[in-house]
Structures
1.
Amino acid sequence: MSSLLTIKQASQFASQCLNKNITTSNISYLIQYGRVKKINENGNTQIVKQDLVKYYNAYQSARKITWKKQLGNDLNWALSFEQYKEAETTKHVHRLHPYKGKFIPQLVEYFLDNHTDNFKKEIYFKKEDIVLDPFCGSGTMLVQASELGMHAIGIDISAFNAFISNIKIEKHNFSELRNELQKITNSLIKFVIDLRITTFENELLEELKKFNNKYFPVPEYKYKAQRGIINEVKYGIEKEKEFLKVYQSLIKKYNIKLKQNKTDNFIDKWYFQSTREEIDFAFSLIKKIKNIEIKKVAGIILSRTIRSCRATTHADLATLKEPIFTTYYCSKHGKICKPLFSILSWWRRYSIDTVNRLQQFDRLRTETHQICLAGDSKNIDIFKSLEKRNPSLTKLMKSKKIKGIFSSPPYVGLINYHEQHAYAYDLLGFKRQDNLEIGPLFRGQGKEARQSYIQGVSDVLNNCKKFLADDFNIFLVANDKWNMYPEIAERSGMKIVNRFKRPVLNRTEKDKGAYCEEIFYLKNLI
């Protein structure tokens, strides 16, 4: 193959070398963001093969060697699941709503399915078993249990987490759902037109396009910024100020009110006045839907929509700093970007995407029972709580008991699980129970916080053991840098019989350093 590759040739070459599917879109991304240099040859876009080799060497084999040196040779690289693209690790309903701290479905499948290998030497669960997740989060385990033909129960202290999980695993009337969503979309279109937001944004986008094409050409600018030929920080600030004059003139021209009159809660603080008006209007339409299941799905779509429409930069969307009500230089995209003045485009996109994802899962699900209970896993009576919601599963559970647990407890001092969805709590009115979270960020990572964590997880396991079969299997996914899990096992009357150590490659945090987590396999002492 020539040293110059077309995008299609580069895709084929990379796929062959890496033994995984590298699409033309993947290659275009590398060009667009300056990872490899673009060559124009006879009007065709090409890249140098050696540039591509260098890029993938840096992020594949070199990373594997480096990480094993730092984290130990017992690192099971197969559990990195690096062969899967993001679309596969967020397949169907797993991307129904953003959620920090979830594990990927392939990890759940690995331990729940009936295969064995050099690391997993026995089968722990089989079809028709009941599996429990006392830290259910967004319901990944419930969904995979359904695919594998297993019954599953989730428990979560966050009412919103239970809300997400149950929408994923419930059955839906897709025809009626589409009709109701389209009605809301049509009404929202008219509402936005009346506000003149669309006209304003269209003119703003035209001005941004002209400005960015002139000062931030793709991919030349990114390539130069990546290599320090352009001082990105200095240049970005300079151009940000230059475009601000254009932005301010358009705000004045269309008489756009930026901030709301109050900042009492999250939705008051983090949204433009125009965006807030659309949110309130859309929610008023959702509340009129008579079918409760469809009303729930519409509610989760609106929650997902407003998360994407917060007044912040693209780079800070996952970790908010301060509201942004002006155009700004975006280090993520390498150009001047704008905040969102309207929810309409995201509502339309997520309405279609949500229905498609629910339908994809519906074709894979089995005729088994799954449910997430909102409650405190430290003391919940699973029988009583389940009997009110799913009598059939309760009857089954009493006859055969729960075979085991697959779960990922919160990490110490890493995430505030209620606060990450503050907008949804404001919107949907769920009761917050931040004080009952185990290991929340607001308690820190000090000695007292770690002791509280150990006690909390131990209490959960001791409570759940009452509902498990005698020969149970428990798998807990954790990054135990303080070596707390031996004590947790001891306090729970269990022993750690194995540990599976996996590299975590695709982290959302900006820190891309060597990082692993362990899957602790626990059994009863007796």
2.
Amino acid sequence: MDPRSAAHALTRIAALLELRGESRFKTRAYATAARAVAALDTDDLRPLLRDGSLESVPGVGPATLAVLRDLATTGESALLERLLDDTPEGLLELLRIPGLGAAKIHALHERLGVASVHDLAEAAADGRLTTVPGFGEKTAERVLKGIAFYRQSGARVLYPRAAVEAARLLADVERHPDVAAAAVAGSVRRRREVVCDVDLVAALLGDPAAAAASFARGPAVREIARAEGGSVCVRYVDGTQLDLHCVAPERYAVALWRATGSAERVAEVAARLAARGLTLDGDELRDAAGRAVEVPDEAALYARAGLAFVVPELREGRGEVEAAAAGRLPGLIEPGDLRGVLHCHSTWSDGAASIADMADAARARGWSYLGVTDHSQYASYAGGLLPDAVRRQHDEIDALNAGWADAGDGFRLLKGIEADILPEGRLDYDDATLDRFDFVVASVHSRFGMPEAEMTARVCRAMDDPRLTVLGHPTGRLLLAREGYAIDMTAVLDKAAETGAAIELNADPHRLDLDWRLCREAKARGITIAIGPDAHSPAGLDNVAFGVGIARKGWLEPADVLNARSAEDVLAFARRRRGSTHAD
């Protein structure tokens, strides 16, 4: 019994129990166990069940252990089968509609008999949805938009999940005795924000076709979508799709390069090779006489094309080949270039940790400063700070900073706020309160449905306020859940360039906002970018890794990023915006 299949069964049980209206404690127990089982480094759970070690795995309790024993003994879960028999098949699909949680699905099913996405669309279109308490006309409109968004999104997943799946599948491939080398390719390697499938390339000492066929017969495979020679595409029971390409070692470098993509970039480099008398023949490079040309690695392939090596993040067919030919590729930012971060929340608003705990986590990551940006008063739903709370929070920050200074520790907390941009374009708080902060991240958290012209004017008006240091998550998008609000980002970028305001690349993997395509446009205008984790816990600080990946896709260098600078330089940036000698 492999962990993937077992985790999938536990996850489905959790979802089905939630749809039935069971307690959150009960459903969470199965979801927690699924994550714990999926993380186990084993091909078979049965030995762990026999020796009792599975019982000591954190997150696996008596009820979930019973399910695992059932799976190990019979290959099925009686609990899961019973729940599936009692639950219309389409209800699980409804969980993927943005903004539609299990409680609402349960209510719709009980009152209207909604049991599929099709049923939901009809109920929203013909007005029946508005007869259910909590579902007004605007909600019905949002549901229809959510359905359209779901159908457009298909089976895509966010990068972090795809990266985890890719690492797990890569480890499986590397365990094959004939595999000499293997690597992640495709959109995961290029660090796309959303991913459809996992691409892997493997160099085989034996027969590539036989190896590919063995993976197609592997555990938890639901179907074989394609199998051709050394290439196979399989779908697992949890919906993950793997495209595996097995080749002989001498073809590995070209195969990895081709499978990494993008298609546009591959075609551009192939044209450069052709101009030099070299032809791509599948995963081989041949000269004018048809002889195979040795390509030990990707750098050698680029050199054959007369190009500097292009890192995977830039391989999108957006001018990187021309830059590589002219020696103008950027020196991209690295995670180690960040000196601190400027967007995090604490228990003063909606965070899960104290300021001291967040500071300790920042110090552990080697940063020299942390900007605390709890929510402002307008965001009452998130525990936004009233002016008196701001003063008390600053007293706490002063005391913490004094302690580090006395100890000779160079770490420093900066007094920030995530101030709401109010509907009329004014920043939350009066001028005197705003002047208390070292810097201000200003964001839109309300009235997302404003027309484009009004939303654009709202944001641009806010950037006219010199106290705004950074414009936070500028489009408001939530990947695979909510499109950004209507806004003219060209006008916003022009206003940022005019006023000298920085723009955030919000590194929460659900946002990754500013989009990497717009990062490059911002860079061309000389706009400073702040990579903010939007962390609500110490673990959330690690979001910056996702942000750095997107920054690299957007051609950003350390000089383009505000928090690649020292605390003193960040404060100086904020002061220049204010045009004053605001005290540190």
3.
Amino acid sequence: MANKNNKNKQQNGKNEQEPLLRVIPLGGLGEIGKNMMVLESGDDLIIIDVGLMFPTSDMHGIDIIIPNAEYVLDRLDMVRGIFLTHGHEDHIGALSYLLEEGVNAPIYATPLTRGLVEVKLREHKLLADADLNTVDEESVVEAGPFTVEFFHTCHSFPDSAGLSIMTPAGRVVHTSDYRFDPTPVDEKPTEEAKLKAWGDEGVVLLMADSTNAEQEEQTPSERTVGVMLNEVFSQAEGRVLLATFASNIGRVQQIITAARTHGRRVGVIGRSMINNVRIAIKLGYLDITQDELLTTAEMESLPGHEVVIVATGSQGEPTSAMVRMSVGDHRQITLRKGDTVVLSATPIPGNEELFNGTLDNLFRRGVDVLYYKMGNVHVSGHGGRADYRHMLELTRPQFFIPAHGEYRHLVLHGRLAAETGVKEENIFVIEDGQVIEIGPAGDNGELTARYGEEVPANHVFVDGLGVGDIGNVVLRDRRHLGNDGFIVCIVVLDEFDGAILYGPEIISRGFVYMRESEDLMERAEQAVLRVLKKSNKKTPVRVVENKIRDALGQFASREMGRRPMILPQVMEV
């Protein structure tokens, strides 16, 4: 496989010409989430997906993470279209932020994806100015030199689509998220005939989902979850509460169908779940009316064996409905003995701590809990290696870029591509910001691929209303504060003779409990006084503060084995 440190000589030849196509990943390669891909040719570019990623437990205070779109923002007049493959947050969640930065291009999405996007844009007061266009698997869109066709993919979202893009370099297939399910719940499998036809015509580049590259077998059919639901509903004596992704509309329909079979009615809880279900009902993706849904009062008052509740919080998101219920903090729904709770999802990599914490809290409430280690409560929307092999065999690409996955997933998918016949030098395992250029080499016009100049593709952190104002240094300080607390030392000196007019006063938070550590604080003050006695009126305040910081740091390490953040405040009056 080609990698950045082992480029072949042909790719670095002297006869390189201007590339016909540049592939620029800004998110989703080397990580799970915040998917964003840019294809560029000459003075034109298109964007595929604009997703977000949820923070890990060490990113204190961060709400979400979005792609660094600096490359696009510097080329606003080149953007010919934004193509959204489906409505999951890791594919559409950062669109509002991109539009707020000035991107004003046509947006193409399937009906349900468009409906969910409209909700987000309305919340951000961007809907009126957005150029939204509805497409389906039969649509063809001209966007500058790009001709974009769509193919239906089987995923945990009803109208997911992959893209086939005719570019100046040839056909590019971007699978987005998919699996080959021969018996999908909506009876709409991934369109293999289109993929085979394109493969017969010739696919220059395949970019394919790699999320489950460690899973050898094909992903089971979504219908296995339906079997589980029927078992749970038939055995549960009380209410059944299921947590799933708010955008997993297909799963919601399975729950509705199973509930009816067992004489139960369904209600939904959680703002995003309520909004998404409302849109799905309006567009005909759910076989239920708004009036049929239970009210929150009915969820609490009806006999338990008649009630099913679908909620947000399958990943242990701190403000979600299920998490609030698990700690007894939900204003409308109170868990009680006899309830059965199903977390119908597997934890996203890096999110295991929040997921497990929610599990423990649910068990503490005395309810029966089912999760991914205890049965078929969830089926991945992503294919396994058997699915990936089949995609490669259908399309038979000249070049291959594994997409959507952590680095090991990309490597494993690349090896699989080599097994199916893709030349190793034509397989590019790249991460965000690493650019691939495809164009003719020499005078014979034969296509080759090479690495281009890297572009910025770091995380952009969203904290409250702040976008991008929190960097790695601030996160480091937050981790520091969270681990060891802080000490503030206040000293007031006479500006004429350097005499101590006040202090040293030491204030601590998160280091020790001061009321029970008076002796320790007195010794800390003595350490500061020794520093002050060695200084004089000519010593600059900044130097005095640095010496106090060093003295208190050594003291905390020696006495407690801790490294608190130390904030000396020396003033002259």
